[in-house]
Amino acid sequence: MTVEAWLRGKTTWIMLGALAANALGLVLVVASLSMVLDAHAMALEELALEATAAVTVGLTALLAWVLRHAVTLRGLAAQRTDADEPRRLAALAELRPLGTRVLSGTLAVWVAAPLLVALAWWTTSQDGGRGPLQVALAGVLVGPLVAVCAALLVTVRVHEVISRLSVGLGVGAVTGATEPVVASTRTSIVGFTVLFVVLPSTLLIDLGVVSIDRLMDQLVDAAPAARQVLAASGVRWLMGQFTLVIAALAVLAVVTARAGTAVLARPLNQLTLHAHRVAQGRLAPQVIAADGEVWLVTRVFAQLEARLTRLVRHLGRAGDAVSRATSTLSDTSRRYEGTAADQAAAVNQTSATTAQLALNARQVAASAASVQDLARQTLEAAEQGRADAEAFQAAVERMHLDNAAIATAVDRLEKKVLQIGRIIELINTVAERSDLLALSAELEGTRAGEVGRGFALVGAEMRRLAENVLESTAEIDGLIGEIREATLRTSSATARGSTLTSSSTALAEQVTRSLSAVAELARQTSSQRRAISLATQQQESGTTQLSDAMGEILESTRDRLSLTHDVTAANQHLLTLAARLDEAVRRFRLDEPA
Amino acid sequence: MTLDGAVLCQVGPFRFALAAHDVSSIEVPDARGVYAGRWFGLGDAWPQTARSVRAPGHHVVVDTVEVHGATLPVLAMPAMVASHLVTGFVDVQGALVPVVSLAHAAERRP
């Protein structure tokens, strides 16, 4: 069952004990007053009604006053609010003083109500006799008994509610929210004894004296013959009333004693059971509600159990952490052991390499000297090459200029050849026309017959001359073609030559730059050779020191390897201890609070 | 029968003769000229050195032209094959060359 469900309607349930105690007290008072009051002074029924009304009004006021200080608790009991942690702590704070408030309130009611009844009786009756005084005295004597009984009954239930509400809450929060009740157990028992010895005795003595006195008065006033019968009936009535009052007192005492015992013994029993569970290793911190010294004991025990729980949790986590760390450490040690062995082998290898490095350094020093000679020769060759390249570049540039002149001449020649060609063409045209003219003349001469024979002969001769001219111009034309072809080839050759000379110039410049760079590098090589020589000497010296240092590192590595073996053994032992710690922690079982 | 003066024309490998008195002039051919090579199945294209032989109302283009001024005997054609186109043959340096009438040749174009 959840806390919310359990709390339903528990406000009335808490206060039921107070109501029952007050009812019992009311019975006791009415029975007592019926023994001592004069029947004629005031009707008993009227008195009982007034007393009941006064007590009822007082109790109602008491109930309202108590519940006014328990707003959160009433909200939880009526299911109006959620039973979250702040509200539960507030309800706990409201519950703690509930018993004390019931005690003081009930006492006030039981003192005030009879006094009011007595005052009313005294003011309304001219001859009340001892009546008002008896009413006030009954209230004063019975009130403390009822108040203690009601307070204890309420406290028993308050303890139970506190135990329920504190489930799942932190011990510190619960103990902080609940104010300790400072009344000691001894004071309570002494007070209880005094109350239930002195007050009932006083009440009974008063009842006895007053009732016997009143019976004696009745016997004196009665006729002698009826005195025996009156005495017998009066004694029986008094005995009955005494029995009723004593029974009521006994019931009140027993109820109060049981409640007081419950207030004292129940927390102790719960504490015993809890301690038994703790002894079995089942840890579930819970605040056991109590008062006085018992409260101090249960609070300290709850705090102790909470601390023990935290300690066990810490131990468990620490054990796990130690186990993991030890495992990791063990693995690391094994790896480190392997690494150390590898390191020793590597150091051995490095030492050998260092010796080889020293040998190489000496060889490098020797090689550096030969590099110096090679660099000098290279420098000389580079300087010579650069001079040759520059001369070559000058020759190429001259060739380039000549080539350009040739190209110009060829161009001029080509133009002249074109002019000759046009002239030849003109001559050819003229020769053709001459040939045609000569042919026409020959024809005309022939047509003229014998007369034109000479003219025909002249035409024929002219025609041969023209044909010779045509043949010559044809030859010249062929020669011009050959010249033009040669010119074209020359022009193409000069163009290629110009391109080649340009490329040669660029190449010559490049060769010059390269040779200059080679010469510069050769100079740098010479200077760097000196630096290399110096560095080689330093390297040789450093290599020797390195070789010595490697020997020391090798020795140190062997020592570390031995230490690593020891660390591995220690880790193994630590692992065993961690397992034992874990086993010890596992004996405790962290239960959720019931 | 004789021929007083002849104009010997050559077209490709072929030769023919025109009577000198039939030829009015020899000129450079123009685009309207008719190539005589067509008569011999040589096509219409004439060489650059060709000559146009003109008669009144007719002309023909030939490769080369040669004027022969001497009087040449003409070998007559047999009657069964005689025509106005070829009037006979002349002996030029040992070779027989047909004598062609340019006016008839122009009329009978191929």
Helix-strand sequence of chain A: HHHHHHHHHHEHHE
Tell the overall outline of chain A: elongated
Q: State the share of residues found in helices of chain B, binned by percent.
A: under 10%
Task: Note the main sheet of chain B.
Answer: 5 strands, antiparallel
Number of strands of chain B: 8
Total discrete domains of chain A: 2
Q: Distance between termini of chain A?
A: 11 Å
Sheet with the most strands, sense and barrel status of chain A: 2 strands, parallel
Number of helices, counting only DSSP H or I runs of 4 residues or more of chain A: 12
Beta strand % of chain A? under 5%
Structural class of chain B: mainly beta
Oligomer: heterodimer
- Computed CA radius of gyration of chain A, to the nearest angstrom: 70 Å
What is the averaged pLDDT score of chain B?
86
Overall number of strands of chain A: 2
The run of helices and strands of chain B is EEEEEEEEH
Which runs of chain A of at least 5 residues are low in confidence (pLDDT < 50)? none
Question: In terms of per-residue confidence, which ranges of chain B show pLDDT below 50 for 5 or more consecutive residues?
Answer: none
The portion of residues forming beta strands of chain B comes to over 45%
